[in-house]
Amino acid sequence: MTIQSFPMTSSVSTSQGVLPPAGFGVYESSVAGPSASFVHSVPELNENEETELYSVSWNQDYSCFAAGTSHGFRIYNCDHFKETFRRDLKSGGFKIVEMLFRCNILALVGSKTNAQYPPNKVIIWDDHQSRCIGEFSFRSEVRAVKLRKDRVVIVVEHKIYVYNFMDLKLLHQIETLANPRGLCCLSHHLNTSVLACPGLRRGQVRVEHFGLNMTKFINAHDSQIASMTLTMDGLLLATASIRGTLIRIFNTVDGTRLQEVRRGVDRADIYSIALSPNVQWLAVSSDKGTVHIFSLRVRVVGDDLSTEVTGVNCSALDHQSSSNSLDGLVSPNTGANPSSSLSFLKGVLPKYFSSEWSFAQLHLPECTQFMTAFGSQNTVIIVGLDGSFYRCSFDPLNGGPMVQQEHICFLKTETRPR
């Protein structure tokens, strides 16, 4: 066992010192691997024993989502919805479950009721081998974990730690404003390495372009940041504040505000922001019980806007790349000039213009927190902390109310794999 400690911050353990770099298994079947010391399969839960849903999180291409429950975790496929996998615990549940695309590698953070794994500890779990391959311990509660094939990012309330996935060595420590929501997002193209998180001032976003060795601070809002997301290549950022009225889109290289859209005039708590893979649409969910779709006027020159990243497994990640027009900008080995970064955007937008209202809408129960993402063929997929899954379509020409195509209560036992 190799243990490496970092003063006053965290400790890291790995089972063999180095993580497997590639060739991970893929969550495609419902067949569980062998049981392990802290996780085991259960044929059926007691009908009288309720399962509480602690969290839901999308994988990086929105083809799956993971649910952390009071009994363990479950993995669901989105396109043709089904539960593909589950593990149930002897000692308690997980409040955070993060997938690495469709791989068998997961990051797990226990709930306060988990006797063995408390909420200040992150477990890197290889379900294919049914073993823990890394463990991080912190002095304070872990707020979020984000994964790339080459990085593990762990968020505590005032700091973000960036580790190398191969050997779990600490690469960066980033100070932030108080961040109880665990706000942090990553790019997922292999030739762009971008991280966005709250800065040290209210309403500020810090963007790290690791490939360019450049930090950009964007004064996105007057109020504190409530939600944010990046495009897959990390070159566009969408943000909302705790007021919840405006969503803004920025160029992450020079901080230019490219577009502003308006959710409403009343204050709202924004639960999630999603950008479509073709950067044509933006979706926002809030505590008002609505999902709003906005039409974007930001275009990346040279990108195949019709291509969606779906069904990606870990071996396929080696072949991902962004458009050729971006290579000179994002390659870590070039002397790219950030001042010319707008060359990858069509120059048809003024620096600022009045905010725009939503193009399409969907009304949902106000009492539930919903997370949204884009599916295929002008659909939106929505997952709620009440255990509900929705698939809805919108008219890309006329907008208006969205049409519900599918609604599933996924916590029910009949949705489990057989």
TrEMBL record:
Regarding the membrane, this protein is recorded as: Peripheral membrane protein
Q: Where in the cell is it found?
A: Preautophagosomal structure membrane
Classification via Pfam families: PROPPIN (PF21032)
Q: Does the keyword Nucleotide-binding apply?
A: no
One cellular component term (GO) for this entry is:
phagophore assembly site membrane
Kindly indicate whether the keyword DNA-binding belongs to this entry. Answer: no
Write out the entry's keywords from A to Z: Repeat, WD repeat
PANTHER family associated with the record: WD-REPEAT PROTEIN INTERACTING WITH PHOSPHOINOSIDES WIPI -RELATED
In the record, the note on similarity to other proteins reads: Belongs to the WD repeat PROPPIN family.
* Protein's name according to its UniProt entry: Autophagy-related 18c
Q: What is the scientific name of the source organism?
A: Olea europaea subsp. europaea
